[in-house]
Write a structure and sequence with these properties.
This protein is α+β, with helices and mostly antiparallel strands and about 270 residues long. The protein has 3 domains: about 130 residues, Nuclear Transport Factor 2, Chain: A; about 35 residues; about 55 residues. Helix content is about 60%, strand content about 15%. It has a 4-stranded antiparallel beta sheet with strand order 1-2-3-4. A hairpin with a 5-residue loop joins β1 and β2. The chain starts with a helix and ends in a 19-residue tail after the last helix.
């Protein structure tokens, strides 16, 4: 029973939180604030963003720092985050590439965000470029005002409205690019792995080349050693013959019969 009550309490709390969220989303913006913020947003679009088509003015804005943005607009009674406005100008310039020249500005719309801490003002602009359905392309310029005394602008973005066919085309293109990138990386990995079998062959060929080179160097050295050994053997043979002849001559001079068959040379030691 206690578990059932606990579950019912948790469910009631969840519904209560959901209800609070709904109330926050439907929280109305008072008419005076709505008029003021929509007027500010309209002025920023018509006097700042749309004038970026003038290259000189665009270069001037690009040269301003975030602090200089804030100082410039505070002088006009508009409080904003300099970084947010710089990002907003960049977003607008990218959107204009698809939007074309702005032909009209529709009415603005102001409403609280889900948390009820900021007011979102959306202005729809129409360009001369056509979408896939042949209709003039539109874009939504969204300003986020902090719900404080100064109504500080914390965000500014421009989103081009895409048709369903264009969204599917972009999604398909992104999918192809993603899959193509994955397959390209896999092919590259396969090529790298296949190269691992070549390295032992290269190492074996280099080892064989090294052994061949060492053999070419060792062959003359071995010939020199063999020649020296043969030369030493020939010198010892001559020395044995001389010693034998000397002994025979000595024994013969003393009248002692001698035969060379009885001579055995055990070892020869050279004295220096």
């Amino acid at each position: 029973m206690k578990k059932i009550k606990l579950i019912l309490c948790i469910t009631a709390c969840l519904f209560a939180l959901n209800g609070c969220s709904i109330l926050a989303e439907s929280k109305p913006v008072d008419p005076e604030t709505t008029q003021n913020l929509e007027s500010v947003a309209y002025s920023l679009v018509s006097q700042i963003l749309m004038n970026t088509k003038d290259q000189q003015f665009a270069d001037y804005l690009a040269g301003l720092s975030a602090e200089e943005y804030e100082m410039q607009f505070e002088g006009m009674g508009v409080y904003l985050d300099g970084e947010a406005m710089k990002a907003g100008v960049d977003s607008w310039e990218k959107a204009v590439e698809q939007l074309g020249n702005v032909t009209s500005i529709k009415n603005a719309n102001a409403e609280f965000d889900a948390k009820g801490t900021s007011i979102i003002v959306t202005i729809t602009v129409v360009g001369d470029a056509l979408n896939s359905l042949g209709a003039p392309r539109e874009a939504n310029v969204e300003f986020v005002f902090k719900d404080d005394y100064y109504k500080t602008i914390t965000s500014c973005t421009t989103n081009v409205t895409m048709t369903f066919a264009e969204k599917m085309e972009n999604a398909g293109l992104n999918t192809l690019i993603g899959m193509g990138t994955v397959f390209a990386i896999l092919i590259l990995l396969c090529l790298i792995i296949s190269c691992f079998g070549i390295f032992p062959k290269i190492e074996k060929a280099m080892q064989a080349k090294k052994e061949k080179k060492n053999a070419v160097i060792d062959q003359p050295i071995q010939q020199i050693i063999e020649k020296e050994e043969m030369s030493e053997e020939e010198d010892e043979g001559e020395l044995v013959a001389v010693i034998t002849a000397a002994i025979v001559a000595f024994e013969s001079a003393n009248g002692i019969p001698v035969s060379t068959d009885d001579f055995v040379v055990r070892t020869i030691k050279r004295r220096r």
